Amino acid sequence: MGQNSSQAGRMTSPVRVIVVGAGCRGEIYSNFASIHPERMKVVAVADPRKFARTKLQKQHKILDDNVFEDWHSVIERDKFTDAVLICTPDHLHKEPAVAFARKGYHVLLEKPMATTADDCRAIVEACTQSGVMLSVGHVLRYDPVIDKIKELIDAGVVGDVIHIQHLEPVGYYHFAHSFVRGNWRNEAESSFALLAKSCHDIDLIHHWAGARRCVKVSSFGSVSHFTKENKPPGAADRCLDCSIEKGCPYSACKIYLDRVKQGNAGWPVSVICPNSYPDIESVTEALRTGPYGRCVYNCDNDVCSNQVVNMEFEGGLTAAFTMVAFTEEICKRRTTVHGSKGELSYNGHEIHVFDFLTQRSTKHTAHSDAHRHFGLSGHGGADYHLIDAFVSAVANNNPSLIRSGPEETLLSHLLVFEAERARLESRVVYCGDTIKS
Ligand SMILES: NC(=O)c1ccc[n+]([C@@H]2O[C@H](COP(=O)([O-])OP(=O)(O)OC[C@H]3O[C@@H](n4cnc5c(N)ncnc54)[C@H](O)[C@@H]3O)[C@@H](O)[C@H]2O)c1
Fold first, then answer.
1. CA 246 to ligand 1 centroid distance, Å
2. Hey, whose CA ends up nearest to atom 15 of ligand 1?
3. Residue with CA nearest ligand 1 atom 43
4. Which pLDDT score, from 0 to 100, does residue 74 have?
5. Which of 133, 165, 223, 339 could pair with 159 as two cysteines, CB 3.0-4.6 Å apart?
6. What is the model's pTM?
7. Domain finish residue from 140, 171, 195
């Protein structure tokens, strides 16, 4: 990483935070306080789910007075912490982000910033006007190896960047879990797939393009395979009742029940029992009655399972992005940066740079000890580095430690909205002034 933010903390008392939304993301970021109690303290929590807020309360010894069912009750109080971590569902980002910023809280806001371009702008405006820091959950910006790609591009190892090819393999059962049965399956309830899943990736491409702005974008994509028409004859509406589930790779029995039977109650099993710890009994009950037990061919999903985005940036730099559900790898991005002097390829683990002149290939990687703290989950350590950087930024009143700050993040979100417009309207969208700083 360019800067070791953990060594940058100089504040003598820990940064005090409120967690709004104590689900998966809220819990992950809160873990930082358990690892580094001298640097961050979770002082309050708001979540309508009793199980979630009580769990966080116990983990962080939060006073009863500081446990809330909803963020609106928190905002009625005078400001009582340094920062807020907003980890609510996608459609519940704008309102709390604006309200907390106006109260003077520094804001860590999960991605996507919001579900409309206007709401994204409103958040940035509120943070700017109040003079508070904003860090958006673009965790990949904090992945040490991915960060190295930018470092190498800026060092000129491939010469002028001519073309960027970037793939997001979502993973077949991850897609079924999150985007067919789960929280991000339906645009009206969350957001479209390119925003929910790939705003990270468009942000990276935008970042790698440097100062060049995107001028034209086109996009295609649809919901493939996970439709009612593809339901096999004889399949039941729920996997527990299905006589042909053994032959289905998307069977909920395989994804959840088999895992918990083998003692693996981590993600995605951990998500499906909203009011209890997962065990064989509660998982079976969730599959019998909840959304995660449904046949993947019989859900109310409407978000794209495969989408491509083509972009042209100033100066003729082109970029091609693909998001696809049907992959073995889960979210291990693959990238190739084609330059005038060489080719950089990233396989999800390490980077190779081939130099056209010397015809030599050089391997690059980067070290992170985040897994010591956050385990192997957490986006390969990037979650740890993001919260680390945010805490350091607040402790030192130094926004430059935040890599996913308001200006660039807003621009890359606007590009996502333009790409989706291109898909919906089946045309090339000229970005014009919309994506200019
Ligand atoms: N940065 C990343 O890579 C990444 C990864 C996954 C999810 N996300 C994003 O993080 C956000 C949270 O996702 P998650 O997986 O933690 O979801 P989750 O469902 O596990 O957690 C969301 C929590 O918000 C709570 N909530 C709902 N309304 C609330 C309110 N009015 N006040 C307070 N809390 C409220 C819910 O009860 C739930 O516990 C989403 O926007 C998601 O897209 C980001």
1. 32
2. 24
3. 90
4. 98
5. 339
6. 0.94
7. 140
- Give the three-class secondary structure for 300: coil
Provide the b/e sequence for 248-277 (b: ≥16 CB within 10 Å). Answer: bebbbbebbbebbeeeebeebbebbbeeee
Tokens representing 12 are: 């003598």
Per the rule left: phi > 0, alpha: psi between -120 and 50, beta: everything else, 215 is: alpha
331 lines ligand 1 (CB under 6 A): no
Using CA atoms, how far apart are residues 175 and 189, in angstroms rounded to an integer?
Answer: 17
Nearest to 26 by CA among 63, 68, 64, 65: 68
Q: Is the CB of 49 under 6 A from ligand 1?
A: yes
Distance 51 CA to ligand 1 centre (A): 14
- Residues 10-43 pLDDT 10s: 668 999 999 999 999 999 999 999 999 999 999 9
Within 10 angstroms of residue 76's Cβ, the number of other Cβ atoms is 7
In a domain, residue 372? The reply is no
Residue range(s) defining the domain that contains residue 167: 144-226+301-367+405-435
- Residue 212 DSSP label: P
Distance (Å) from CA 74 to ligand 1 centroid: 17
306 and 361 inside one domain: yes
